[in-house]
Specification:
The complex is a heterodimer.
Chain A (H helix, E strand, L loop, with lengths): L2 H19 L3 H21 L3 H26 L15 H22 L14 H9 L3 H29 L1
Chain B lengths: L1 H5 L1 H10 L7 H35 L15 H11 L10 H17 L18 H10 L1 H11 L3 H32 L4 H8 L2 E2 L2 E2 L6 H17 L11 H4 L9 H26 L15 H22 L5 H28 L5 H24 L12
Antiparallel strand pairs in B: 1-2
Helix pairs in contact in B: 3-12, 3-13, 4-12, 5-7, 5-12, 7-8, 8-10, 8-14, 10-12, 10-14, 12-13, 14-15
Classes of the chains: A mainly alpha, B mainly alpha.
Chain lengths: ~170, ~400
Amino acid sequence: MSFAFYLISALTVAGALAAVLLKNLVHCALALTIAFAGLALLFLNLDAQFAGFAQILVYIGAVAILVVFAILLTRGSETPKDGEIFSRTWLAGLAVAAAVFAVLGWAVLGTAPMLPHSSPAPHVTVLQIGNALMSRYVLPLEIVAVLLTAALIGAVMVAMHEKEEKQ
Amino acid sequence: MFEWLDQVFVLLKHWLVSFLPATWQPVAGILLCVLTIICLFPALFAICVLLERKGLGRMQNRLGPNRVGPFGIFQPIADGVKSLTKEDLVPLSADALVHFMAPVVLVVVVFMGFAVLPMGRNMVLVDLDAGLLFYFAIGASTELAVFMAGWSSRNKYSLLGAMRAVAQMISYEVPLLLSSVAVVMITGSLSLSKIVEAQNHYTWGLPHWYIFTPWGFAGFLMFAIAATAETNRSPFDLPEGESELVAGYFTEYSGFKFALFFLGEYVGMLSISGLGSTLFLGGWSSPLEALNWVPSWIWFFSKLLLSIAVFIWMRGTLPRLRQDQLMNFAWKFVLPMTLLNLFVAGLWRFLGDGWERWVVCSAILIVAYILMGRVGMYREHFGPRRYRYAE
């Protein structure tokens, strides 16, 4: 655990907390972007170049923009007057979050002893990831591709339906 | 002698760094390179602005700037002093922090792209294994800066400009990425230095640049279109269309923050031109084998300035597109063509070295281009143009 790790983790946690605690929705979305950037930096800190850059490309370049667009096109970005940041069901939400965290933590702690401690970190290049995706994992890749295509066609259908109604 | 000239900047860096103790040398080397990039590209920005104002003036039958210094060549300095000394206005209802962060984020992100561009033989700051991926990941973050600027200004024009800019950048990022993927497929690497190396061969004194192949030519054209849209340049300058939106997403910026947006736009242009020349025009390799003695960095920066000249030329020539034309063009023409180009690049790879692949690949692309153009024209009911007021 180096100094850089603590710095990046602090940034990520601060971004995530701000995303939950800030009142203005657009500020929340921007804070979430900081958390995404922190996660990408953590990947890079672990020498996982591909995962880090994919994180930036997908989450900052696409997901954050999508969130911001959704906020602007639906509820408006005005700050609520009487700022109540906790919803009424915060207890249930907390319980769900704690349960998810517990399951994930249990899974991570369960796998830790299985890994050999002394082996050096493997140096994985983008070329190796590409080869693995195109040979061993080609079936999952294709399934994901079909799924995404179906989602895309679905989105187009939704958009086209609205257009017909207008006319 | 010529080899020495080719490597003069690398040698200069090693010579300067050698004065420091050994433990500091790697850090100092990196800092020196970063400093060079940060100083060099704003200088090029100043030259580009002057060239643009002069060139546009010539195209519009006027002189352009001619008061500051001989032929107005000190105009950028005067502009810089002006923007530094102007009052920095922040609207009362603006979101001060986000309003301040937007230009900073934009400029930082734009400069980061240069980290992976090879600007000459052995002249790349970090030779990343996934350099192209890094470039696109960083490039995708500029949209957020544009949105921050538009939203935080609390101005309808700014917000409209930002929404237009983000929609346009997202739409054209897809063809930008897909046209570059063809290069990656042929080279078999995401590293930009390897892509340049793969093009740095000669047959009969002529280079093996990717633009001189059917898929590369089509890919380069689509890359250039997408890059123009990505940098919000005319004819895709809807986000900052002066006649419609004042200045688009940076309407509420003044003083040096405005200058930062201006800098960001031009440095973004230089950076995407650098990527385009790296991917399709052979990067730092020379256009003729006989000219190999000219230092590699001269070729890179010549290609850069040539692309800027084309950008200026297009701005002086083409009218602005409408929003629906922009979107239709991206999704109904450029995107299918890039997808077809991926298929053609695959064919090129597996058809062997003979002349057949030239015929097959060119035929597919030309037929598709003509068919799509005809079908598109037919659907839009384009006929002979009639002017109602003249009848």
